[in-house]
From TrEMBL, chain B:
PANTHER family tied to this protein: OLIGOPEPTIDE TRANSPORT SYSTEM PERMEASE PROTEIN APPC (PTHR43386), PEPTIDE ABC TRANSPORTER PERMEASE PROTEIN (PTHR43386:SF25)
SUPFAM superfamilies: MetI-like
Superkingdom as given in the UniProt entry: Bacteria
Membrane-traversing stretches: 20-40, 81-105, 111-135, 142-163, 169-190, 197-223, 243-265
Bilayer topology term: Multi-pass membrane protein
InterPro entries linked to this entry: BP-dependent_transpt_permease, MetI-like, MetI-like_sf, OppC_N
Protein name per UniProt: Peptide ABC transporter permease
Compartments where located: Cell membrane
Species of origin: Sinisalibacter lacisalsi
KW Protein transport (keyword) present: no
UniProtKB/TrEMBL annotation, chain C:
One Pfam family this sequence matches: BPD_transp_1_N
Membrane-protein topology: Multi-pass membrane protein
Sorted UniProt keywords: Cell membrane, Membrane, Transmembrane, Transmembrane helix, Transport
Span of domain ABC transmembrane type-1: 95-301
Record protein name field: Peptide ABC transporter permease
Keyword Cell membrane (UniProt): yes
CDD domains (alphabetical): TM_PBP2
Subcellular location: Cell membrane
Transmembrane stretches, start-end: 9-30, 99-122, 134-162, 182-201, 232-252, 282-305
Alphabetical list of InterPro entries matching this protein: BPD_transp_1_N, MetI-like, MetI-like_sf
The organism of origin for this protein: Sinisalibacter lacisalsi
UniProtKB/TrEMBL annotation, chain D:
Membrane topology annotation: Peripheral membrane protein
CDD domains (alphabetical): ABC_NikE_OppD_transporters (cd03257)
Subcellular location per the Swiss-Prot or TrEMBL entry: Cell inner membrane
Family statement: Belongs to the ABC transporter superfamily.
The protein, known as: ABC transporter ATP-binding protein
SUPFAM superfamilies: P-loop containing nucleoside triphosphate hydrolases
Domain named ABC transporter: residues: 4-255
UniProtKB/TrEMBL annotation, chain E:
Organism listed in the record: Sinisalibacter lacisalsi
Keyword Isomerase annotated: no
Superkingdom, taxonomy of origin: Bacteria
Annotated ABC transporter domain residues: 9-251
Upper lineage: Bacteria, Pseudomonadati, Pseudomonadota, Alphaproteobacteria, Rhodobacterales
Record's keyword terms, sorted: ATP-binding, Nucleotide-binding, Transport
Assigned protein family: Belongs to the ABC transporter superfamily.
Protein name: ABC transporter domain-containing protein
Family annotation (Gene3D superfamilies): P-loop containing nucleotide triphosphate hydrolases
Name of a matching Pfam family: ABC_tran
Coiled coil: none
Length: 488, 283, 315, 324, 264
């Protein structure tokens, strides 16, 4: 019953899940669109639109059965034709589709509710990739997705199978979803994103409230039921407030300082990069940028503790804070004080705060850091030009499979594409043995600490706040907050 | 010459304006001597001493970097003066010159003032925003952008005032004496613009602070690390309930200083040549 | 009058042309391109290039300008890169909030500013004048976002009397009662502007009261209040009118900060967001609309002058 | 008893913390059908005297600080503000120097006259308008029916001054104070306006105080003249007597300073020196530093008004034609 | 009177274009002034008197006509060409309050023309000349370091006159030079102007609406009405036997002090 009012940090560029990687877009869109798989609370992929799958002995042929009777918001039944069309578009144009489709030979319908994917070689992460909705294979009606290209779908084509259907997008005002009465929920107890989904609200309203203070005040004043991205420093205060519930995000995000592997003083000089890494103590930056102890972890592993991908390989270099050692190492690496251009944006306070601390630490170790402060859009433009920067600051959301981490992409600014990386990456994707994959990943992580294409800054557990009237939210969010099985 | 006497006459019997003047003198002193007075380095980060309450040794408490707010406030006085003076200088040098020349050389004025008209149509804050995104966030750029924003109004105002002065009989008299353009502009007209310009400057000075704070707030002003009162407010604004002192002190400082500048400007306005009263904007 | 209006409108054309050119130039000089922002972190350079081509951003600047201008003349401000909807629609959505906000703010300004200005002028030098003009100046010295922040804390969070932020539109459920959402923002916005109007009303009243005809009015034996309203204020209104006009124009656009603090879906915030997203068509569109609004108000002010001051004839 | 009796009027201006007298003890009276001219150089206090009588000094930092004024037997200074306002514009009206600025530019002249009428007479708007047109006709404005709807800027200076006169006469005042009503007008128009005033006086019997710095204007229009110097009336007399004797050296000097249009003189007989400023301290006769007849007595002793002929008062120790 | 006039104005026209309308402020005016002669120019307010004076000093551009100063047409000269002649054609302004730059001391005001026209070579030289001229107009040398606002109206007008006299011009145009002064001061200044004119032998165009003043100071008088000169003649002829109807009306409206008695 009623309307859920969700204060977002801004507006998503589009809800088209296949092409967009914005977290905000997924937070909204996961109510509208569904993929074949999703994650349960342990971050393992479980069927959603799929009923189940069989994999051939050689691991190359995957046959997926689809649930029957699932309806799109336009009233049509979901069939294999829709799924094949959706997967094909995702494979060709989707942001993360290429990762899988590099290895895909064909996708075809083998029945009204069955499809078959043929791989060129076994590919381990396929199910994780299918389950990750962000930039992932959301299922659209074939009529819409056929002929659609890279261009995001326009709002009138937002037709999915989810518990809520898209209703309206008022620029600057809100995105509104309404309950889809013909929704057919998957079976089973709700667990993570898996299991039964019940739409309790008449409508969900995602209202952009860019100013964080306003999000907090608005929730306290009762104008919003839920508000995202709240600064760590307010945690204690908000947790003590009986009018506010705090909800931690289970998957931490982490800052990354990319180094330019293509041009400039850092391009090939791994020793110098290691010297930079050596100079930095990550803890003070986390203390300052995030605040309370519980909300950050000085963790060098790219995936958090408790996750299957957790590994300490290479992490002894993570946070040394050894100014003197770094100075010596830099000198040995031939560094003579030339300026190092470090770009950071002020749009995310934690980027800026961290960069300030790092700059101080690096200066102490004798580095000549030229901190360049831009707004996010400018930074994005500049970072694509190799001659404009040496380091830049960004952050990364939680991903269920390391293959999805941006540094794995050779084209990502920084352009890390050494032969060592290429070799390990090939092995990593080729294997579908979980244990072997974890092992290869730890080697990759070690390589990252050695070649330093990027520098992790530590895990940040963000949290959201909600009105105590909301029932069913649970203690923590998995990746994106969702509002099926939630009521007021 | 008449300076001291005229300052005295401007402020005679205006208690508030006098208090304002005293406050501004404090600000100026703080700006000049901040490195000597400040107990801490305003950039010194201390993760342990984050968000400490006001007390000893952190008179105004510390911010989320653990930096000493009192020291930052002292250095903030420096930014206040810098932004104010910078904006005034930019506005007067560009806008003022355009306005004066346009009024004096009528034909040139037709062209230039059309341009000013066009610029006037651009809302000041939006223009500042667009300009700021064009440029890197830096103290210099902020000053220039704010100065440019006030340049258009200044040009308008100076245009009007110069036009009035150009019609004065003593200008005719100078022409009859054979004085050239430069002499008339700078020897006969400009000195008569000094006091209205001072008034105008005081308002620009005051409102530039608010404009700068607004830019800081929108994330397009001074680099956030720079200790300015506007930055102190906008960078720490989420702590309004958690660490109220972080907003109260710099807020009070801005308000007090802008208020003082306004009081001083008002006092000066009341005492200037009535010819120009209409022209001078509250900006 | 009509003839004059038409003439003035025609005279606006060159100014508008210059303004549009300037807008275009400014906006396109801003670093950052919409394609990269739209495509996000993982886009390849080829994809960005393709989208850039698709959006027509690879043409020479002047070609882009001419195409844009041509479209504008046909009433088409282009399509928002970000929203994918026509710019005009996006602006129209924002305009509702902005115009309502500006109007409400003007109501406060007139309601508070004018009477206080009059009272303060009529009591020049007395304590009531000192308090009102001092207070006005104090309000003009407060950074808007600071004031807004505390108003929210007090009236929305603390007392719970008014909503803290947002504005769900008059067509939304709630209808006219949704105007409650605009009370705090409009007060925030009104504070400095009302202060300026108070000062202006006071100063103009004092100027007029020194004029000879006021003495004539008093010499007729009129009551001081009648002299103040009918003779002094009526004449002071002439110079105050322009301020009203330009304040209104400024309110529509310069509410950026207030709209951000109160998270209002207005034009000001739209511009800021569009600048951050490099949504060129929207930035251009909004600035164009605001420039047109400004000029239109300029014209209205002149027309109002002619109505208020019979000495001005419109030829 | 005269219509207006001014006795020892003293007006002071506040300069900072000081109250400096500007009009320092002025006495005169006017009666019905009479025209009193007050002449004097700029700044000598003519307008302040007039404004004090009208009751328009309030709130300008200028105050009546001494003396008495009776109008129709009533003490003006003892009246309440309301009573004063009831007389203002009704029994007593004033015309000002600047016809260009003395009318409110935003109202039609008719409405401004009507406003005065409605303030004191219980007239309907229609009746008031009819009366306004009559008044405009009375002051010889052509086509009063349409001119009643003109705005001030649509009238010439002379016409505006006529409107002012019409407004002043609207409630049949007993006393009309005209403060330099023609100074800003062209000579030809000046004459017409003055003639008009005198003509109206003949019909209504209104007492007039005409203030001017132009001795010629005074000589042609007034029954009696008061010469003012630095806040004092130095000579008061019926017009003929005044110009006959020119008893006060200042009056005489003033007259000789004026270049005549009907006679050639090579050099003007100018008064040396300048008028003292407000607040200047001068012992003895204020005119003595410029006076050709000054003797040591003049430097020490302030002259008191002396009646050297019936109705002819002079403030001088050694007036011309006096017993020297 | 010498054969060649110092200034010969022929058919001078000055039209102003304001808001699409043309104001024919001066519409065909001709007169001449001989060296050492004073020509009075009278007329109603707005008839164009000041405009004539302003056109002759190039403060206003003439629309048509000629003004021959010692044979050269000054109206067609450029600003630069006219510069050397400015020394010889000077102007006294009406308002003693407005015609002096409030920000300059008397010495600064007076030295400016000296240096522009290279009359003084050195500061000392200028100083001496200024003191001399101030003395001429009846002010002491202590006036030099003071600002205009420290003087009374009459004194300021003397400074204005000094500024003109310091250049020893051949022609002075006095536009309402005494109208803003009080009668008693006016008489002093009139006497001064007359004396200086006689002593230096300069010619003068004396513009005034005050007929008495014009009669007092002029040799000849020109009466202007609506942009045109309606009558010119010897002052006694104009004042005692006016030919033109307008002149007569003007003279008739002057209030007179009838029972004027000659005093010893
Ligand atoms: N409101 C005022 N405040 C201060 N000084 C004033 C005020 N009104 C008049 N004065 C001064 O008082 C003196 C007398 O003024 P008043 O107006 O009576 O002169 P006046 O004789 O009418 O002169 P004029 O012929 O110039 O009108 C002048 O020196 C004038 O400057
Ligand atoms: N710059 C100008 N632009 C437009 N019209 C002007 C200008 N200067 C003067 N005039 C007009 O020219 C006419 C003559 O003006 P001018 O000043 O020469 O008259 P005047 O005889 O000197 O009058 P007064 O006795 O009032 O000084 C007037 O109608 C005036 O309005
Ligand atoms: Mg007077
Ligand atoms: Mg003139």
């Amino acid at each position: 019953e009623g309307v859920l009012r969700y204060a977002t940090v801004g507006e998503p560029p589009t809800l088209d899940q296949q092409v967009v990687t914005s977290d905000l877009a997924t937070t909204i869109a996961q109510h509208v669109f569904e993929g074949l798989y999703t994650f349960d609370s342990s971050n393992s992929p479980v069927p959603l639109l799929a009923a189940g799958e069989t994999i051939s002995e050689d691991g190359k042929t995957i046959t997926i059965a689809l649930r029957e009777g699932v309806k799109f918001h336009n009233g049509q039944d979901m069939t294999s034709a829709d799924v094949v069309a959706s997967l094909k578009r995702w494979g060709e144009f989707g942001s993360r589709g290429g990762l899988l489709f590099e290895h895909v030979e064909s996708v075809e319908a083998t029945g009204d509710h069955e499809i078959r994917i043929t791989l060129s070689a076994p590919f381990g992460p396929w199910k994780n990739l299918m389950a990750f909705l962000n930039g992932g294979p959301a299922i659209y009606p074939a009529s819409i997705v056929e002929g659609a290209g890279k261009e995001p779908l326009s709002p009138e084509n937002y037709i999915g199978t989810g518990p809520y259907s898209f209703n309206a997008w008022e620029a600057n005002r809100y995105v509104e979803l309404v309950r889809f009465d013909d929704y057919v929920s998957p079976e089973g107890e709700a667990d993570g994103y898996g299991g039964e989904r019940v739409a309790e609200f008449d409508a969900l309203r995602f209202i952009p409230v860019p100013d964080v203070g306003t999000r907090v005040s608005g929730l306290r004043a009762g104008d919003y039921d839920y508000a995202e991205s709240i600064p760590g420093d307010l945690f204690a205060e908000l947790e003590g407030d009986p009018n506010v519930n705090t909800i931690l995000n289970g998957g931490p995000l982490f800052g990354l300082v990319f180094m330019n592997s293509s041009a400039g003083p850092l391009a090939e000089n791994y020793a110098l990069r290691r010297a930079i890494q050596q100079a930095i103590d990550k803890v003070p930056a986390l203390q300052i940028a995030i605040g309370p102890e519980g909300l950050w972890r000085s963790n060098g592993s790219f995936l958090p503790e408790g996750n299957v991908w957790y590994t300490e390989a290479g992490t002894e270099a993570f946070s040394q804070g050894d100014a003197e050692g770094a100075r010596a190492a830099a000198e040995a690496a031939g560094y003579t004080g030339e300026p190092i251009k470090f770009m950071v944006s002020t749009n995310y306070p934690f980027h800026y705060d961290t960069a300030i601390v790092y700059t101080k630490q690096l200066a102490q170790a004798g580095f000549n850091i030229d901190l360049q402060v831009y707004d996010w859009a400018t930074l994005i433009e500049k970072r694509s030009q190799p001659d404009q920067w040496d380091m830049f600051f960004t952050h990364h959301g939680f991903v269920p499979d390391p293959i999805l981490i941006s540094v794995m992409n050779d084209n990502y600014p920084g352009w890390w594409a050494t032969p060592e990386k290429a070799e390990l990456k090939a092995a990593f994707t080729a294997s579908s043995d979980p244990a072997e994959r974890v092992d290869i990943w730890s080697q990759i992580q070690e390589l990252i600490y050695e070649q330093v294409p990027t520098m992790k800054t530590g895990d940040v557990y963000t949290y959201n706040i909600a009105s105590p009237e909301l029932d069913g939210l649970g203690e923590a969010t998995l990746i994106w907050p969702h509002f099926w099985n939630v009521s007021k | 010459m008449m300076a001291v006497a005229s300052i005295r006459s401007v402020f005679a019997g205006r208690t508030f304006a006098q208090i304002g003047l005293v406050w501004l003198a404090f600000v100026a002193l703080a700006a000049i001597f901040s490195p000597l007075i400040a107990p801490f380095d305003p950039y010194e980060i201390d993760p342990i001493a984050r968000l400490t309450e006001p007390g000893w040794p952190h008179l105004f408490g510390t911010d989320h970097f653990g930096r000493d707010s009192f020291s930052r406030a002292l250095y903030g006085a420096r930014m206040t003066v810098l932004i104010g003076l910078g904006a005034v200088i930019v506005a007067l040098l560009t806008g003022g010159l355009v306005g004066m020349l346009s009024a004096y050389f009528t034909r040139l004025g037709h062209v230039l003032m059309r341009g000013v008209d066009v610029l006037m149509a651009f809302p000041a804050l939006l223009m500042a925003l667009v300009l700021m995104t064009l440029l890197e966030r830096s103290v210099m750029n902020t000053i220039i952008v704010i100065g440019v924003v006030y340049a258009t109004t200044t040009a308008r105002i100076l245009f009007g005032m110069t036009l009035k002065l150009k019609g004065e009989v003593f200008v005719d008299a100078a022409v009859c004496s054979g004085a050239g353009h430069a002499s008339i502009l700078f020897r006969h007209i400009l000195p008569n613009l000094v006091s209205p310009l001072l008034v105008q400057a005081s308002f620009i000075f005051a409102f530039a602070q608010l404009q700068a704070a607004a830019l800081d707030f929108l994330g397009l002003g001074l680099p956030p690390e720079v200790p300015s009162w506007g930055n102190m407010l906008s960078e720490e604004r989420i702590y309004v309930t958690r660490a109220p002192w972080l907003l109260i002190f710099p807020g009070a400082l801005i308000i007090l200083s802008v208020f003082s500048m306004n009081l001083v400007g008002d006092a000066m306005r009341d005492s200037i040549d009535p010819r120009f009263k209409d022209d001078i904007a509250g900006v | 009058m009509l003839f004059y209006t038409i003439k003035r409108l025609l005279a606006l054309i060159p100014t508008l042309l210059a303004a549009t050119m300037l807008v275009f130039l400014f906006v396109h000089l801003i670093p950052g391109d919409p394609a990269s922002i739209l495509l996000g972190d993982t886009a390849t350079p080829e994809e960005v290039a393709a989208l850039t081509r698709e959006l027509g951003l690879d043409e020479p600047l002047w070609t882009q300008y001419l195409i844009w201008l041509g479209n504008v003349l046909q009433g088409d401000l282009g399509t928002s890169v970000f929203f994918g909807t026509p710019v005009l629609t996006v602006i129209a959505d924002g305009a509702e909030t902005s115009i309502l906000l500006a109007t409400m703010t003007m109501v406060w300004i007139v309601l508070f500013g004018v009477p206080i200005g009059i009272v303060s002028a009529m009591n020049k030098g007395r304590w009531i004048d000192q308090i009102t003009s001092g207070g006005a100046m104090l309000f003009a010295s407060i950074p808007t976002f600071w004031l807004g922040l505390y108003l929210i804390l007090l009236f929305a969070v603390g007392l719970g009397w008014l909503p803290s932020s947002g504005f769900p539109s008059l067509t939304d459920t709630g209808g006219v009662t949704n105007l409650r959402y605009l009370i705090l923002p409009s007060l925030t916005l009104a504070a400095p502007n009302a202060a300026l109007i108070i000062r202006l009303v006071r100063a103009s009243m004092l100027d007029v009261s020194r004029e000879d005809h006021v003495r004539t009015a008093r010499a007729k034996g009129l009551r001081p209040s009648r002299v103040a309203i009918r003779h002094i204020f009526r004449n002071a209104l002439i110079s105050v009118t322009a301020a009203f006009g330009f304040t209104f124009a400024a309110l529509v656009s310069e509410a950026v900060v207030t709209e951000t603090v109160f998270s209002l879906p207005g034009i000001g915030r739209l511009v800021v967001q569009s600048i951050l997203r490099r949504d060129y068509p929207v930035i251009q569109g909004v600035i164009l609309v605001i420039v047109v609004l400004y000029m239109f108000i300029n014209l209205l002010v002149d027309l109002a002058y002619a109505r208020l001051d019979p000495r001005i004839s419109l030829k | 008893m005269a219509l207006l009796d001014v006795e020892n009027l003293e007006i002071s201006i506040r300069f900072g913390h000081e109250l400096l007298p500007v009009v320092r003890g002025v006495s005169f009276s006017v009666d019905e059908n009479e025209t009193l001219g007050i002449v004097g150089e700029s700044g000598c206090g003519k307008s302040l005297t007039a404004l004090a009588i009208m009751g328009l000094l309030e709130g300008s930092g200028v105050r009546v600080t001494g003396g008495r004024m009776r109008f129709g037997g009533r003490d003006l200074l003892a009246m309440s503000a309301d009573e004063r306002r009831h007389i203002m514009g009704n029994d007593m009206a004033m015309i000002f120097q600047e016809p260009m600025t003395s009318l409110n530019p935003v109202y039609r002249v008719g409405d401004q006259i009507i406003e005065a009428l409605q303030q004191h007479r219980n007239l309907s708007r229609r009746a008031a308008r009819r009366r306004a047109i009559e008044l405009l006709d009375l002051v010889r404005i052509p086509e009063p029916d349409s001119r009643v709807d003109s705005f001030p800027h649509q009238l010439s200076g002379g016409q505006r001054q006529r409107v002012m006169i019409a407004m002043a006469l609207s409630c049949d005042p007993k006393l009309l104070i005209a403060d330099e009503p023609t100074t800003a007008l062209d000579v030809t128009v000046q004459k017409e306006v003055l003639d008009l005033m005198l003509d109206l006086q003949k019909r209504t019997g209104t007492a007039i105080i005409l203030i001017s710095h132009d001795l010629g204007v005074i000589a042609e229009t007034c029954n009696s003249v008061a010469v003012m110097y630095w806040g004092r009336l130095v000579e008061t007399a019926p017009t003929d007597a005044l110009f006959e004797t020119l008893a006060h050296p200042y009056t005489r000097g003033l007259l000789h300073s004026i270049p005549a249009i009907d006679r050639d003189v090579d050099w003007l007989d100018a008064i040396p020196g300048r008028v003292p400023t407000i607040g200047e301290q001068i012992a003895g006769c204020p005119f003595h530093p410029r006076c050709p007849r000054a003797e040591s007595r003049c430097r020490h002793e302030v002259p008191q008004p002396r009646e050297i002929a019936p109705g002819h008062l002079v403030e001088c120790h050694f007036p011309y034609g006096g017993d020297r | 009177m010498s054969a060649q006039p110092l200034l010969d104005v022929r058919d001078l026209k000055v039209h102003f274009r304001t808001r699409g309308r043309t104001v024919r402020a001066v519409d065909g005016v001709s007169f001449d002034i001989a060296p050492g002669e004073v020509l009075g120019l009278v007329g109603e307010s707005g008839c164009g008197k000041s405009t004539v004076g302003r056109a002759l000093t190039q403060l206003e551009r003439a629309t048509a006509g000629q003004a021959l100063f010692e044979g050269q047409d000054i109206l067609s000269m450029s600003r630069r060409q006219f510069l050397p002649l400015r020394r010889h054609i000077q102007m006294i302004f009406q308002d003693p309050y407005a015609s002096l730059n409030p920000r300059l001391t008397v010495a600064q005001t007076l030295s400016e023309p000296l240096f522009i026209h290279k009359i003084a070579r050195s500061r000392k030289d200028a100083q001496a000349r200024i003191a001399e001229t101030l003395d001429l107009v009846g002010l002491g040398p202590e006036a030099m370091t003071r600002y205009p606002h420290e003087f009374s109206g009459g004194q300021r007008q003397r400074i204005g006159i000094a500024r003109v006299m310091i250049l020893e011009p051949k022609l002075v145009i006095a536009d309402e030079a005494v109208s803003a002064l009080d009668v008693s001061i006016q008489a002093q200044v009139l006497n001064l102007i007359k004396k200086l004119q006689r002593d230096s032998g300069m010619a003068m165009l004396f513009i005034s609406h005050d007929l008495g003043v014009v009669r007092h100071i002029s040799d000849r008088v020109a009466v202007m009405s609506a942009g045109k000169i309606v009558e010119t003649g010897d002052k006694s002829a104009i004042f005692e036997a006016p030919q033109d109807a307008y002149t007569r009306r003007l003279l008739d409206s002057i209030p007179r002090i009838m029972p004027l008695k000659e005093t010893s």
